[in-house]
Amino acid sequence: MIPRVHAPGSRTIGLLTYLYDPGKREEHTDPHLVASFDGMSPDPGRAPNATLKDLQAVLDQPVHALPKHGRPAKHVWHTSVRATADDRILSGEEWGEIARRIVAATGIDPGDGRPGCRWAAVRHADDHIHIIATLVCEDGSRPDDYRSGKRAQAECRLIEKEYGLHRVTPGDGTAAQRPTSAERHKAQRLGRERTAREELRETVRRAVAGTAGEEEFFDRLAAAGLLIRKRAAPSGDLLGYKVALPDDRNKDGQPVFYPGARLAPDLSLPRIRERWTTDVPARDAATSPSPTDPTGRKTSPTPAAARRRTATAAWQAILVVEHGEDTLAAGHIAAAGEVLDALAQTSAAHTRPALRDAARAFERASRSHVRPERGHDRALRQAARDLVHGGPALGRGEDGATTAMAIDMLFFLITTAGHWHAQKGHAQQAAAAHRAAEHLRAAYQTAAAQPLDSMYRRGRQLSRTRLNQQSTVVHEAVPELASRILAEPGWYALAATLTDVGAAGHDPAALLTDAAARRELGTEDSVSDVLVWRLRRVAELFTRANATLGVPIAPAPAARPGRRLSRRSRRQP
């Protein structure tokens, strides 16, 4: 159950007109009172002779009883209370009781003989009610409605439990502002799947991913087709910005602009500037040097190189989130959101939908009350920058394999972030990270199928002698997991990878021991597949099937699915 306390208004009749009107798309059906302060207020929806002005006069009576100079300018209190999509349809009597509990909890009508305001609850749809009140008590005093939004949230948590409704995860005030009902109805009229606010939030988030400064940020916003207004101080210093969609207009035909802070708390210009902090020790900025051409000029990395760096940066970030200070962990979690945004906009078409869903879900997990310390997250931010500047990746060959490798490591980073949030009591963020991990699981299965199938076929073509050699390596490096690995279908892909490791001049047993020790493996669905990506990342191997053995890529066998990632993200830490 989701309550929303709106900003106070000044016209009781205006709000009543909205509540009892059919709506712009006839979405308001059978508007009527389900409860009121005295149980006898006139109901323009059901009583034949009652009018909106009658109900207004009753509600406004305590306000008009005050001298004009003593009346509050904004005296109309308005709260909507909405059930979730999977809740049952509540009866009018149930909604009436819910309304009485909300006004009592928020201090509008506290009961127990204490002065209260006049109020009425209107239902014009199955799934929600609106409560309107006037902010003057019967004795002329003002109600104690301080933090009424928080109080309404707390009461709704109790109502959910008692009525057997969907238990909404409690918030902490760091979530992005939800679209208003007017914005949702406007999007429906225009045939849009999402509101302008949601479209702008995602576009700005993508634009800021991996940026190095203001000029680049605003250039990306302009390239995305947004209208931009900048707010400057008299000195000329930039203070903030607003953005609008070119085709989102108000009734006067003017663009509807949204300040960055109204899109999400971390999209205000001051918060974005924190990402560009660079005053950290060089040893903390574990970024790879940018590639250069023969003349020494910096060049953009290839998509595959960007993804290999992303996998490395994600592994380093996992260690920080697990063992670092809270502010550093929060900074790396926020930067992980940038990497997801960058990966989603540069990956091949077959993985893009799931990656976009992961980025959208993780947006909520990137913010909490732990203020991130920026600057130490430069490796992740550089990875996001490399992904953007590396450009779109193909869905096959080296691009496809390194995409699977990056997604594999990002899955563990996002899962680790979810566990960190859960330990801190950040319920909404932990749930968002869990949703993002599930989307990454789907993206991985799509991305990994082709490269794993190619390595699988290569492993099947190895000689019996070579397979026995690699089997010995596994028994030597991970004796406790050897029998399980050798029984997995992914064993052949691991055998091919161990062969590549040896051909590249590494000690396969030593490298495998190191890869297995980097993180617990017992709960993985396929230990072999996890080790494949760890080995290829650590050894910096190319993953084309003919890179080392000269074996052409054969069609993937239909029975060989991509690995299913660990289900550890479904468990509480």
The helix/strand series, from N terminus to C terminus, equals EHEHEHEEHHHHEEEHHHHHHHHHHHHH
Count of DSSP E strands?
Answer: 8
Q: What is the number of domains?
A: 3
Q: Percentage of helical residues? A: 40-55%
Largest sheet: 5 strands, antiparallel
- How much of the residues is beta strand, in percent? 5-15%
Structural class: alpha+beta
Give the overall average pLDDT.
Answer: 88
Report Rg: 29 Å
What is the terminal-to-terminal distance?
A: 27 Å
List segments where confidence is low: pLDDT < 50 over at least 5 consecutive residues. Answer: 279-288, 543-573
- The best one-word shape is elongated
Number of helices: 20
| Spatial sequence of strands, sheet with the most strands | 1-3-5-4-2
3D structure, described in words:
This protein has 573 residues and is of the alpha+beta class. The protein folds into three domains: 2-163, BirA Bifunctional Protein, domain 2 (2-Layer Sandwich); 190-268, no CATH class; 303-570, no CATH class. 49% of the residues lie in helices and 9% in strands. The strands form two sheets. The protein has a five-stranded antiparallel sheet, sandwiched between helices. The longest helix is centred in the last third of the chain and has 34 residues, at 427-460. The two termini are 27 Å apart. Mean pLDDT is 88; it is low at 279-288 and 543-573.
